Amino acid sequence: MAGLLLLFLQTAAAAPPADLTIWPEPKTVAEVEFTDSQGKPRTLSDFKGRIVLLNLWATWCGPCREEMPTLDRLQGQLGGADFQVLALSVDPDGEQVVRDFYAEIGIQHLELYIDASARAIGSLGAFGLPATLLLDRHGRELGRKLGAAEWDHPEVIEYLRELIGTPQGG
């Protein structure tokens, strides 16, 4: 099974969707801390067992604002026990500015996660926004994309469905 997964990832690396760079081997990811919509402390470990598309963004970032609806639609289509779009705001003004933005553009499927300290940017080596990391079920980074993407494009959805369908998802 591991051989099939490696073959899948190598094949996908030739032409990944959304200009996603897939690493030859999964990489360890720093543990980052943030809060959820109830102010409860969370970490990336809370999402182990799922494929996670971790998107670092901010309301003041134009490309982030443009791609947010595509992330919302992706979560609406694939979100559940096996997959999670984790849109992590690094807005220094915190929760209310993000709540207002979600309401303004009609976000329906994304949960609210905030890292007002923006420490995740440095911890994850994501210097520039938006930055999106694809994490396997073990919390390891399979690949990343710097800059905006159309995350609900059919190629992306097909790619993620195939990844979700693998025994370990990475």
TrEMBL record:
Gene3D superfamilies, sorted: Glutaredoxin
Annotated InterPro entries: AhpC/TSA (IPR000866), Thioredoxin-like_sf (IPR036249), Thioredoxin_CS (IPR017937), Thioredoxin_domain (IPR013766), Thioredoxin_ResA/DsbE_sf (IPR050553)
Annotated compartments: Cell envelope
Keyword set includes Lyase: no
Residue stretches making up the Thioredoxin domain: 23-165
UniProt entry keywords in alphabetical sequence: Cytochrome c-type biogenesis, Disulfide bond, Redox-active center
One Pfam family it belongs to: AhpC-TSA
Protein name: TlpA family protein disulfide reductase
Species of the source: Pseudomonas benzenivorans
Taxonomic lineage: Bacteria, Pseudomonadati, Pseudomonadota, Gammaproteobacteria, Pseudomonadales
